[in-house]
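yo

u said u wanted the structure for the complex thing, so here. seqs first:
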Amino acid sequence: AQRVTQPEKLLSVFKGAPVELKCNYSYSGSPELFWYVQYSRQRLQLLLRHISRESIKGFTADLNKGETSFHLKKPFAQEEDSAMYYCALSYGGSQGNLIFGKGTKLSVKP
Amino acid sequence: GAGVSQSPSNKVTEKGKDVELRCDPISGHTALYWYRQSLGQGLEFLIYFQGNSAPDKSGLPSDRFSAERTGGSVSTLTIQRTQQEDSAVYLCASSYRQFYGYTFGSGTRLTVV
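structre next:
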């Protein structure tokens, strides 16, 4: 069965430190992976998609099929990065669905 | 519209009553999804509509939950005989094409007392 695991419920770092939010997935097919972010009192929004290989707000994520991981990284965390981050897996092709991990709360301290 | 609109934003209801939650997706988005967001549980998939295809109802937690999408646009999620465990934020999202990602509404916070 498809599954997304985010092992850390809470990650706390200091401003300027590197940050890595872990995401592992379980899916036998070819995955499409996303990171979504929810800032305080705002709606959930797409941060980045692995298919586009983009860097948004300094964040990047690389799909590692061997380790079935899609970790989110940023070299220098900022206080405004504090938010809830969700990793998501799309499966089932064009008619498919999106399942989410339970999320990691990132807290960046000054 | 400019974004996904959900109403009401907050709903307090008594246990045993029925509630209806509404979602207006982005115009032209063929796919519409309902999720439930509970503290510590992340986002739980409920139901998915894609065009004129039969909806994927595999995430509905019980037969008290149902949803419909009229004219390929507005969707209503109905919860009958609400229970306290139904208290959560109910999120709607729409998508033009799946791999472009979803656009979420701001949600309806349901509290069953």
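Chain A touches chain B at residues 9, 32, 34, 43-46, 49, 51, 86, 90, 94-103 (CB under 8 Å). The mean pLDDT of chain A is 90.
cya
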